[in-house]
Amino acid sequence: MSFSFSGFSQKQLKLLSWWTNPDIASKYRCIICDGAVRSGKTLVMSLSFILWAMSSFSGESFAICSKTLKNAERNIIEPLLRINSIKKRYGVKYSSSDGVLSLANADGSKNTFYLFGGKDKSSFSYIQGITLAGVMLDEVALMPKNFVEQAVARCSVDGSRIWFNCNPDSPEHWFYEEWILKSEEKKALYLHFLMSDNPSLSDDILDTYDKLYSGVFHSRYILGQWTRAEGLVYPMFDKSAHVLPVSALPQQDGKFFISIDYGTVNPCSMGLWLLKKDCAFRIDEFYHDSRKSGVQLTDEEYYLKLVQLAGDRSISCIIIDPSAASFITCIRRHGKFKVRGASNDVLNGIRLVSSLLSAGKIKIGENCKDCIREFSAYSWNDDASGDRVVKQFDHAMDDLRYFAYSVMRR
């Protein structure tokens, strides 16, 4: 499917054309765009990066970086290749197996764009050794510092430029401290985007996104602020909106799951879920604190509690903390339930649960007292650097997050 731009906002036009303005281009070697989600900064930056590279160089290599190769392909390459002006203006070849994009001008000059993923500290080795005329780093706040530094260091061709794009994170994040706060010192043009800077979004869409996030995620993704996480993790949780009497809970016409945060010394929490269309109901739970009770249960004893919680229901899957190797083995040995390790991405899991709560897609039965209790105590760690939660009152919160991120995200 192809598309054409119907118009640009003033902020987008500046991003699109900054390198064509002699006064700006002579002053800045880099550009940094941050701010709200859905503000159009990624697509316009991608277009601007390609136009700059193709009009300024021939026979050179460039890098397009994201957290993973899949992210770079999905968020940058695929949208670019659907733009009519790109398809008409350049000869395009893209190899998804190699992660290489080749573009040629009508006069035969061409450049090569290599895709790189910067997901962890070892990723810097992938980009090491290449000589670049420019690099675009999308989702730069999600990349390790050594990968970004290596990518910047590879830009040694005369006239090379560096393009950064991200959503905000903590104000203690290294990129905020070393690049955004020092943008002038780094010779970087800094543009801050809001959702209103994207003319393609209607008022209804803007209102929908405004209601989708709460707390720190609203500050970052909607207001575009580099905000510290503090206070309750789920301030949007409201007993009057999210807690239902047992009589109002559905008992069928959906898929059943059980999510588990396993603990022997620490508490063990199990949640029984009914996923009905796009809404999840926690209809029952089991919670055991060995310290409080003075009784430590074995894997076999926990398995009996799991069977009791499931009852005669057909359980689609048991979603469990992936580090609970012995209990996973115990469940599989009995052969009654399908079991898999949960996706344990803490911050993205919390963000998803926040969005689901804000959208009214998670409901908790009033009989799930430990889950309800933890909602009022689950907090951000004010003493930690970066976004970390206090490791207390988090066991039902963890099993809820496992379920949401491993099942509802799909």
Topology of helices and strands:
Blueprint: H1 10-17, H2 22-27, E1 30-35, H3 41-56, E2 61-66, H4 69-81, H5 84-89, E3 91-95, E4 100-104, E5 110-117, H6 124-127, E6 134-138, H7 145-153, E7 161-166, H8 174-180, E8 188-193, H9 203-212, H10 215-221, H11 239-242, E9 243-244, E10 255-261, E11 268-276, E12 279-288, H12 290-293, H13 299-310, E13 315-320, H14 325-334, E14 339-341, H15 346-358, E15 362-365, H16 369-375, H17 395-408
Helix pairs in contact: 1-3, 3-4, 13-14, 15-17
Explain the overall architecture.
With 410 residues, this protein is α/β, with parallel strands linked by helices. Helices cover 37% and strands 21% of the residues. The chain is built from 17 helices and 15 strands. It has helices at 10-17, 22-27, 41-56, 69-81, 84-89, 124-127, 145-153, 174-180, 203-212, 215-221, 239-242, 290-293, 299-310, 325-334, 346-358, 369-375, 395-408, and strands at 30-35, 61-66, 91-95, 100-104, 110-117, 134-138, 161-166, 188-193, 243-244, 255-261, 268-276, 279-288, 315-320, 339-341, 362-365. An 8-stranded mixed sheet has the order 3-4-5-2-6-7-1-8, sandwiched between helices. A hairpin with a 4-residue loop joins strand 3 (91-95) and strand 4. Helix 1 (10-17) packs parallel to helix 3 (41-56). It starts with 9 loop residues before the first helix and ends with a helix. The model has no long low-confidence stretch (mean pLDDT 93).
